[in-house]
Amino acid sequence: MAFRHFYLKTFNKQISLNHYIQPSLLSTCLIVQKRTGTAKPKTAAEQTLSTSFTKNKELYLPPPAITLEEMLPEVYTDENIGKIYRFPPEIIPKIEIFKFPPILEQELSPLPYPSLAIRQSSIQLTNLIENASQKSSTETRIILSGEMGVGKSALLLQTINYFLCKPWIVIYIPFAIKFINSSYPYIKNKITNEFVQPTLSAELLKQIKAVNGKLLQDLTLTRDYKLNKYTIKSNSPVIELMDIGIKDISCAFQVFEIFLDEVGKNVNYPILLAVDVVNAFYTATEYTDVDDTYLDPDRLSVPRTILDYFAGKRDFTYGAIIGALSQCHKPYISKPLNIALGLLAPSPWKQYPQNILNYAVGLQRFDVPNYSQTEAKGVLDYYCDGSSILQQSRDKLFQKTFIATNGNPRKLYLSCWKGL
Amino acid sequence: MVLHLLGVNLPENKIVRVALTYFYGIGHKTAQRICSKFSIHKTCKLHELSESQIQQISMELSNMKIETDLKREVINNIMHHRSIGTYKGKRHAMGYPVRGQRTKTNARTARILNGRWIRKEGFGTLANSSNNMPSSNPTFKILPFFIQFKPFDRLLPH
């Protein structure tokens, strides 16, 4: 009783239990943060840590120690399907700068290290993009699709990890919804009738510079540019241009466009542009025009720039563009995008917005399947090794959970930790 | 910290869209329209606004009918009915429901709220006064018969 009372007392106020969990489970249990409407603001300390891996040590007993190998590019082979690898310690801070996708972060947080299993689809996707390293980005525009909880965000994260280890320039947007949900200031550009998001552009530039700084140092501009108050000459380093955009927010978006142009022309390092919840860019935004009507994403500067790359209107000389759909956020599911990808049959009675359909032309669909038997076994073995609570025999547990969940990764994860 | 705008104190930690509703005469719709006009995003707080944006908003608000102007208009409308002797005016004066509700039971809100401007100004009908505006005749104190006849007067809070 005293043991249970002690743990209940030390619960963080922000985490709430979905179901009552017995005290024997508390030592290594995984508490999924309930998504309620009354979200309390995070303190400054918590905001800097995008992952909550440090929380685990304060509140819970440490799980049995498992040694995991690092998920380096050499590991992405057919023999390693079903094995669990952890993100290399050099790569985790880079992904933390971009921030982990929010739902995946919650699911990874109670584990000792952020780790994922190598799957058949991860090998296929990385091979697809490796082959595109010497081709224009218009030829490799992939969208990951699949049912809810099948591992699209995780797959995207694995590919990012793979290409961060290689000399590729990676631009990762873990949560595209924040670009369009009216959480950043916007200003109307009267000349182009478009709305610019200066703080967002500056933030993106900062993140890209922090992650890809070493590779960007080698790149230089091909011509002179005139910004608001500054002029920058050709052959000056790209990083100098980015510094201008970060310091002076009024020209941040201009700098962002110039940066993408210049870096896209380079031949030394291919570029990977990865966007999670990409369907948010194909729905109406929550920003309003001057006459109080909702804006389409092509009226906002940053989403429009990224959509240009997805549509093939702009390209990188060498590189690839991936997006991952998400069905977790229902208001942002895009019917035009689903129709363009062939996931939805168009109704003859409805008219779909043509301006959004124009940006969904020529996209390649990559279906992510559920776990195969080998993959599910590997993942379950990891969960059983890493906890002191899953006492059942592994074969029985595997049969029970695999049949009940049909191999869906998220359901398998929840069935192990919360019960069927 | 508090921002003073057109006679109203707005707490600076509030979202702009919500803070604008603190004005009498501005609800959520007009607040949203004002924010869209000046391209203020939905999660913008008052302390994030620049001086020029605050000036633009106060210019816009001063062109709208809010606060005392609006209250005066409402009172004038009621006084107009009373002065020309309509049925509505009489109901306001008696402190009864105006829009045809029942009075056998349940007319509590009407008894408290209706006619409070008329009682305050000491107003009468056209028949009783040569000049309608109470401010032009401050000594006018003769009330018409209908105002004095109040069967439930003792129940009214004074």
From TrEMBL, chain A:
Protein family membership: Belongs to the mitochondrion-specific ribosomal protein mS29 family.
Species in which this protein is naturally found: Dentiscutata erythropus
Phylogenetic placement of the source organism: Eukaryota, Fungi, Fungi incertae sedis, Mucoromycota, Glomeromycotina
InterPro entries: Ribosomal_mS29
UniProt keyword Transit peptide present: yes
Main location: mitochondrion
Record protein name field: Small ribosomal subunit protein mS29
GO molecular function term, any single one: structural constituent of ribosome
GO cellular component, one term: mitochondrial small ribosomal subunit
Record's keyword annotation contains Ion transport: no
Compartments reported by the entry: Mitochondrion
UniProt keyword list: Mitochondrion, Ribonucleoprotein, Ribosomal protein, Transit peptide
Pfam family, one: DAP3
TrEMBL record, chain B:
Record key words, sorted: Mitochondrion, Ribonucleoprotein, Ribosomal protein
GO cellular component, one term: small ribosomal subunit
Subcellular location: Mitochondrion
Organism: Dentiscutata erythropus
GO MF assignments: RNA binding; structural constituent of ribosome
Protein name according to UniProt: Small ribosomal subunit protein uS13m
Family to which the UniProt record says this protein belongs: Belongs to the universal ribosomal protein uS13 family.
Highest taxon listed in the record's lineage: Eukaryota
Stored Pfam families: Ribosomal_S13
Example GO BP: translation
Biological role stated in the UniProt entry: Component of the mitochondrial ribosome (mitoribosome), a dedicated translation machinery responsible for the synthesis of mitochondrial genome-encoded proteins, including at least some of the essential transmembrane subunits of the mitochondrial respiratory chain. The mitoribosomes are attached to the mitochondrial inner membrane and translation products are cotranslationally integrated into the membrane.
